[in-house]
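2 proteins. here.
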Amino acid sequence: MKIEKVKVDQLIPYVNNSRTHSDEQIAQIAASIKEFGWTNPILVDGSYGIIAGHGRLKAARKLGMTEIPVIELSHLTENQKKALIIADNNLALNANWDAQLLKIELENLQSFDYNIDILGFSQEFLDELLNATEENEENKYTQKVDIPTYEPTEEKPLLEELYDDAKAMDLINSIQRSKLQEKEKQFLMTAASRHIVFNYEKIASFYAHSSKECQELMENNALVIIDFNKAIENGFVRLTEEINDMFDNSKNE
């Protein structure tokens, strides 16, 4: 492929181009061309019909340019040309940003008084990204904690109603029957306990009808949260995701 310069008036926009360009975006493209030069040639067919670069053509006209670089793709069939017109516009939309790395790069540019407005981001996006602060280390355990709430029933549930350990016991039994070393068995049996599914609605009722000693131990195990500060001190939030996963699994099974 060869890059050549052609007169702007020679280029023919595709009549069925479904990609739209606002005046604001054209101004952004023009600002980018003015700042960085022409870094992305327009793609054309054998008759200078535009395949990719309609926005760049409008920006060039806005800047008063008379010649612009193009790459001729005369080898494409008519169907390939139509498909590329769509794909060229759509494929870039499938990419995402790593917000943390983007913020670092933008802040670095700002430190050199570089005008980041020409990068094409909306002011709302920039404000949200650059003004976002990391969670305070002291308060991070109080953020985004989703704790289900239950009303205790009048009757105390049976212990066997509080949890389902059938899968865990099956695993434990198979581990005990194995020929593994005892330390390996102990490790795997501990891991098997993760498959115990707790019924927190029943646990709430059980707690309400239990002794003070039992209640305190349930709180210390984060089975029930009464004093939120105490739960944080005991590392409850470190367990939150696991507990919520167990809760979700109990609803799905």
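next one coming up
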Amino acid sequence: MPRRHDIDALRVFAFALLILYHAGMVYVADWGFHIKSGYQAEWLQYPMIFLSRWRMPLLFAISGMAIGLSLHKRSLAGFALLRSWRLLLPLAFGMLLVVPVQAWCEAVANGAWQEGFGAFLWRYLQLRPWPEGGWTGADYGVTWNHLWYLAYLWPYTLGLLLAVPLLRSAPGRRACDWLLARRGAWLVLVPALYFLALLLWLAPRYPQTHAFTDDWYLHAEYIPVFLFGYLVARNDGFWEELVRMRRSTLAIALCAISVELLLRAAGRHLPPGAVPAALAQLPWHGIELAARALYTWTALLAIFGWARVLLDRPFRWLPYATEAVYPWYILHQSLIVPIVFALIPLRLGGALEAALVVAGTIAGCLLLHEYVIRRSAVLRPLFGLRRREAAGRQPSRWTTTSWTASPPR
């Protein structure tokens, strides 16, 4: 099948938004992060919520699509081994040598560590719990921080590969065909009701931790969209339906997020007694959750539908950006946190400080990727890149350059 430029481009844009989102976490009021600036704003919660509802489901759906587009080229065992190499090696390297600078900044900022980074790294690499704490993951002695996505993607992938023989069987194909044939209101409402059920019953019992073992709410959200991505990847009829529905799904998504954000703003800012008694009796929390669930799902449908129309073309920048995604993802938060840590004492003002954080992170990712990582045969696999000679071949399929799809050959 032709190369899917729209999925490549969506991945690039999604990870670019991740840089802005994690930079925003430094400045958004009332939300915890590894380090917080003295300049915080409550209004940032609204654009952050607008992004956060779909940004990670989007990435897991794209990862499922990548497998669906590439798996037919390899044996299941070979794909599992190569995919494990592509995910676990960067994860282990990142946890041991990229992420620790975040933990050091967090520990120093919290007053739990007074020595330099070298001494901290020596202690960190002993992989023993830290009784003194002071940073995320200290109880375990090691942390994956923003790299949790890789830690989740690997078992999801292996689980999917185990299920592939069933999905390829005659009963499995009939069941998948029946599911993907559901269109229109069914496609919108049934998954949205599933997300609402998760918010009502699972989320209160299992708040998200990113620790994997107890993160049942996030697993219940991410695994179905990951499987969804795999199932629809090669289904042309489904993509035609997403394109046909793109205006409707976008309108529904915008209405739903407007309801959620307006209810949040009203609950925070309206004085007691401002709402008439009859209206106050309505289940506003349930309405807010229903709007959130509907927005999460319809935003995904709209994004994929519009991307198919607007982004499925061979942009000149796309091959380079596709390769850069993985190293930039691994690096970005380990640049954001120390840059903020260095700028906080200077008291430059919120706007200038935030601009320097974003610009410094982009510049650091660009320089390290271009002049260090992609030119080093040793560093390339540690940051998820293929061997130089393999990367130099002109790809003829979408999946040959996708780090979420094709392991190194």
